[in-house]
Description:
It is a single chain. Helix 11 (189-199) runs parallel beside helix 13 (234-243). The chain has 21 helices and 2 strands. It is 64% helix and 2% strand. Among the domains are: 130-200, Annexin V, domain 1 (Orthogonal Bundle); 212-288, Annexin (Annexin V, domain 1, Orthogonal Bundle); 290-359, Annexin (Annexin V, domain 1). The protein has helices at residues 23-33, 41-45, 77-84, 89-103, 107-114, 117-127, 130-142, 149-158, 161-175, 179-186, 189-199, 212-225, 234-243, 246-260, 264-271, 274-288, 290-302, 309-319, 324-335, 339-346, 349-359; strands spanning 50-52, 70-72. The chain is mostly helical.
Amino acid sequence: xxxxxxxxxxxxxxxxxxxxxxxxxxxxxxxxxxxxxxxxxxxxxxxxxxxxxxxxxxxxxxxxxxxxxxxxxxxxxxxxxxxxxxxxxxxxxxxxxxxxxxxxxxxxxxxxxxxxxxxxxxxxxxxxxxxxxxxxxxxxxxxxxxxxxxxxxxxxxxxxxxxxxxxxxxxxxxxxxxxxxxxxxxxxxxxxxxxxxxxxxxxxxxxxxxxxxxxxxxxxxxxxxxxxxxxxxxxxxxxxxxxxxxxxxxxxxxxxxxxxxxxxxxxxxxxxxxxxxxxxxxxxxxxxxxxxxxxxxxxxxxxxxxxxxxxxxxxxxxxxxxxxxxxxxxxxxxxxxxxxxxxxxxxxxxxxxxxxxxxxxxx
Length: 363
């Protein structure tokens, strides 16, 4: 399925709005679930989880004077999972407003102070508005030493023009600079050019019309730019891949294979390398089948030694209200195992439980 079709398929959603939703009790549940918020009478007034020390363990010398005393029992991570992974993003925003109104604290900041590690990273990601979350991922990919080109490529190659415009707007509002200018400052050469071209969203054409003559000409131009000559005309590849519609490109790929006797992917592999190769192949993969592309991203985030948690979190969070169910089906077809089973093998604890809750039941 072409990449742009995925955005209109509601059966792909794993996280849906909760019916009979009321943000106030959800906010109170989260308040009770977290330790260290309000002590003494205020904590007890909100019925925080407690345990009681037996009086036999206390002496008259005890600072508690021989009486039993309530002690906060710590953070109830499962309660946090049950609320935040079972509500839509719009509902989470309402919960955050209710939390602040009831308890005078910012929910996201409170979660950061109470949680840690990968579990914190996942739960905090759920609290961002979708476009602000993707803007944050792009900003984080470019800040500090080194650039995570794979993150930038993934987001820019798989989003529609409207989504890219919203991401650029959120990026400028949150970080005070232009996303395009930051990409230009942080990358160079043909990689910079293809990323800037992708940012324009020129492939966002959902019409089914394809001009067979133009498709054939594009295929011939790609062949002439790569296989037919010594060296590669990278800009010809970039221009066609980044400015033609998905339906048009699918026809171009068919014509190319007839001319070159090899797939466009094989030619890109042999003619380019590094991050430019990754960017071009990502465009092709997203054009052919967006769900297969994300299934591949999730698989390789967990395959082998270590887990690429950033990739795993980003793709599960960002796709959970779009097409994660469809991605799960492709994952099982491609790799012979379910996404859930691989998460169970590769992660642990509350982090694992939250991921599984977002992913939902197996296809």
